[in-house]
Design brief:
alpha+beta, Alpha-Beta Plaits, Transposase_17
Length: 180
């Protein structure tokens, strides 16, 4: 088995991405983004996750982070948020896409190799070790410019669900550690 996309360095800083099944635009509602933020805050406090940068897009999430047990932290994060997001979608009376999203998430589970009840996230998280300053700068710029490139905002720091505000000198939604 390849080690290309494994978090093998417990002291390493990694760029990782989580994508929703079928790239469904789930994070268009604030309450779903808040589930992600609250879960990340829990991992920061209880799971020894260090968060350097983050950005929630409509159908995926980027993090630059580290943890001595990154794989298990990510596994737990994805498992918990999948359950919470699925439940939130089911219980949201304002969710006009409930039937479609439920079908999509259940189909993802049925089609998975484990034949799960449902699957919210695509498998894996594609960790990329950021082992030099040029790579750190490239991924940090990519992550923060993602909402600008998508045409949602004109400046990275205008995107609420991102650490770009912190890097612009303002206070963001989650506590971050600046990369030295």
């Amino acid at each position: 088995m390849s080690d290309k996309y494994k978090a093998n360095d417990p002291a390493g800083i990694y760029f990782i991405t989580f994508s929703v099944v079928q790239w469904a635009d789930v994070f268009t509602r604030r309450e779903y983004c808040e589930i992600i933020c609250n879960s990340l805050a829990y991992c920061l406090k209880e799971k020894n996750l260090t968060l350097y940068a983050w950005c929630i897009m409509t159908n995926h999430l980027h993090l630059i982070c580290s943890s001595p047990m990154l794989a298990s932290t990510i596994r737990d994060f994805k498992k918990y948020t999948a359950k919470e997001l699925y439940r939130a979608i089911q219980q949201n009376p304002q969710e006009s896409r409930k039937g479609w999203l439920s079908w999509l998430i259940k189909s993802g589970g049925e089609l998975s190799s484990k034949h799960e009840e449902y699957r919210f996230w695509q498998p894996g998280y594609h960790p990329i070790l950021l082992d030099n300053n040029a790579l750190v700068d490239q991924k940090l710029d990519y992550l923060h410019r993602n909402p600008v490139t998508a045409g949602f905002v004109e400046e990275p720091e205008h995107w609420f669900y991102s650490s770009a505000r912190d890097y612009a000198g303002d206070h963001g939604r989650l506590p971050i550690t600046f990369i030295q």
